[in-house]
Description:
The protein is mostly beta strands. Helix content is 3%, strand content 61%. The chain has a 19-stranded antiparallel beta sheet that branches. A hairpin with a 4-residue loop joins strand 12 and strand 13 (201-214). The chain is elongated and about 85 Å long.
Amino acid sequence: MLNVPLTDVFKLRFAIDHQQRDGYLDNISGIGPQDFADVDYTAYRLSSLWDITDAIENYTVLRYTDSDNNGYPGSIFACNPAEVFGSFCEADLAQRTANGANSFYDVYNFIPDPVNKTESAQIINATTWEINDDLLVKNIISYGTLETKQRSSIFGTNWTMPRGDFLIFQMVGLADNLPSTDQESGVEEIQLQGTASDERLTWQGGLYYEKSQPINDYGFQSTALIACDQHSITSGNPDDFRCSNVFGVGSVENNSGGAEYTSKAIYSQGTYDLTDTVSLTAGLRYTDDKTEGAVTDTIYKFPLAPPGEFAPPDQELTQVERRTPSADSSKPTWLLGVDYTPEDDMMLYAKYTRGYRQGSVNIAGSAGLDTHGPESVDTYEIGTKTSFHGSMPATFNMALFYNDF
């Protein structure tokens, strides 16, 4: 990190964070990388602080992060022999045990080129104007982009059909031209902060607006219950797909589209000192959220090819469905609390908070299962915060809480 005060009123800070670490999950398949759950990212941050006048301050942050690693496939630990695939699962586990490759950190990867990439960029600008000793105005505006790419075998199964075909139970197969996420978001927030009643009241209020929308179509290309040439199903052109429907119900599904989010809110919160030792806090927020999705599901079916061979998709069995899931929700949330400070080194408190999460859409879900409603939580908490001085200074905090979700 480097701080550069160019003048008395304009200062810069530049920082880089890089981490690289080998993975701790051992790949026992011999296909693809030797390990998973590795780390390889670099983050950059440039910020400027400009004291425009004695009362007006402008703070800007630019940040960019690039992460590229192997991801983390799951692994099998137990099987239900009564289920349809129980025999495949048991045979898989037995083989791993016989080979001495069934430890907690062993995974089986069948994808030659797994992908787990994240690239994000953001600019944030905050302007603060101290109108007088009792009133401050703050405006925050930001814009950010996020793109992710993923290709993973999910469960890390190693299942082979009696005739010798490798059965893909399920994988998220990234099409080369289809990212997992490609979204841009903008936020505008204006705040008022101040004091009143001889500074016994500290308060703030504001308006919040957020808009997030796709930059390009994104989604997944998923393969399930089928045998395929792995190199063919990463193509963005379905004419390149080569699979064999060895189980009779397998398919390759392309799910592409995006979702648009809009969130608006108004809020206010204040703390009032009733006495020198007792203060009350109350806050109220009303949020209105809207989510609209647009997605095209294309399901490709395949014939049963001879053992060891693959065939193109059967165009007559291709299924196309277009969905436009949407979800609207609006809720009030609040906070009520009391603090009691009998002495400088001790505070007792109690608070009740209502929280809310918006209803939304899941563009990867099936029709009728691609939306969900809002969620709320009531949180009750009492506690104490204390500190001690002398030959052995220390702090001791304790809390009792109950959440009703």
